[in-house]
Amino acid sequence: MKYGVSPAFYVSRWGDQFTIDNILESLDEVSGLGFDSVQLEIFHRAHLDEWTVENCLRLKEKLDRLNLRVSLFVAHFLLDIFSDEESMAPGWGAGEFEKVAEIVSAHGFCSNVAVPMAPCRGEMTSDVVELFDGKIKELVDIACRKGLCLSFEPMPGSAGEDLSFLNRIPEAGLLMDPGHMLCSGINPAELDSNILKRVAATHLCDNDGVNNLSLIPGSYFREWEKLLTSLLDAGYENSLDCEIICPRDEVKASYTGGRFFLSDKCIQNNTFIIR
Predict the structure, then answer these.
(1) 80: Cβ–Cβ under 8 A, 6 or more apart, which residues?
(2) In this structure, what is the dihedral angle of CA atoms 170, 73, 36, 262, given to the nearest 10 degrees?
(3) 124: which of 35, 60, 112, 132 is 20 to 30 A away, CA to CA?
(4) How far apart are CA 215 and CA 231, in angstroms?
(5) pLDDT-derived band at 275, boundaries 50, 70, 90
(6) How many CB atoms lie within 10 A of CB 232?
(7) Distance CA 249, CA 245 (A)
(8) Dihedral sign, CA of 199, 160, 149, 109?
(9) Dihedral sign (CA 132, 138, 141, 143)
């Protein structure tokens, strides 16, 4: 099994304004901590223009040199296209997503891209659901034309938090974040195998089910072994990626602890010795 880090690693190290240079600088540490995989991300629209051919080649060269694979590319800055009826209208955000898909496809970073779903303002009327499904299909079509698999990460309060869109749109994948699910009233260990078969990538984090935090796996939730066993039994083949938001001076301990927990049969122990 391969283990990786989500973009939360860069957020913890550099804040949410992290740049492609910050990602490049982080790769040595990620590799040194024993991870096999990384996720790439554009967090803010303002950073989309950083992903030039020259910068992508620099990134690809360093990934190859460190023998790090990319498990997912996250277009985080597009999360607001699911926030209300206006943003779900056809065409909104499609051009920006096409740029992301082109970057990923042209440089062969990976075959998986993802878009988070922000909390949705207003009622989920039948008209909103129709717009919501239409927006998903619009983005999925763009990804498919680029030879990519598109998954979605529903946040608590989003139009997709109950995961029912997966039943309506078979081409859509799921970026599984147990922390978001716990705060949406879903026990991730009880997910149906048909849902687990749609998981394309992971953001493995934990919380108390009330505060939507991204803590070390094993902090609260007690059914991690069941969850991961069910996920692998459903045919999941991508890496298990830690999603931990923590203070900068706790990055090494937190990510080492998260990797140890996931790789050591999910023993519920929150004390780790870092050497």
Answers:
(1) 87, 118
(2) -60
(3) 112
(4) 20
(5) very low
(6) 13
(7) 12
(8) negative
(9) negative
Q: Are 43 and 13 in contact (CB under 8 A)?
A: no
| Tokens of residue 136, six digits | 């998903």
Tokens of 133: 């499904």
**What are 111's strand-pairing partners?**
none
pLDDT band for 271, please (50, 70, 90 cuts).
Answer: very low
> Residue 253 corresponds to which tokens in the numbers above?
């301990």
Contact present, 238 and 226 (Cβ < 8 Å): no
Query: Cβ of 20: how many Cβ atoms within 10 Å?
Result: 18
pTM of the model: 0.96
Q: What is the pLDDT of residues 131-152, one digit of tens each?
A: 999 999 999 999 999 999 999 9
Cα gap 200→237, rounded to integer Å: 8
According to the model, what pLDDT value does residue 149 have?
98
Is residue 1 within 8 Å of 263, Cβ to Cβ?
A: yes
Q: Whole-angstrom Cα distance, residue 202 to residue 222?
A: 18
- As a whole number of angstroms, the distance between CA 30 and CA 32 comes to 5
Question: Of all helices (H) and strands (E), which one includes residue 274?
Answer: none
Q: Which two tokens stand for residue 169?
A: 């749109």
